[in-house]
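haha ok so turns out i had the wrong file open the whole time. this is the CORRECT one, sorry everyone. sequence first:
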Amino acid sequence: MRYILVLLLLLSSCTKKESAEDVLSDFIKYRFNKNQSREMLLERTTGALFQKIREMDEETLTQFVYNDDLKLRKYKVNLSRCSDETCFITYTLAYDQSDEKGRAYETVIKKIAEVQKEDEMWKISDVSNVKTYIDSKRPINTGNQK
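then structure:
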């Protein structure tokens, strides 16, 4: 009897449906992963974001997934407004960006993600920036300096 109960618990935990916030959290963790692929990004997205990723050439995709200099420090959901098919989640990310000499600056970004249900699964449809704060102890190279 005990084995049947354990088996039922395992099966139910494996088939747990993820909420929109869970999907967003997994997506963010994946975006800070060094081994991102177009296929995995497309599996996690829909709508406008799906189209943008699908249409990226290889050079643009490489720039989009490049994050060797980034280290996620904090992720926090500030507000979540959901209906049956769509969620708008306002969240804050804090991460460190370093150069070859060590930590260069800290960035805090407030964003809004649109998460839509597609085939009974939540997927990221769009992400927009609301506000960005950068704390740097030295000048930031914007690429425009000579």
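The longest strand covers residues 102-118.
again sry for the mixup
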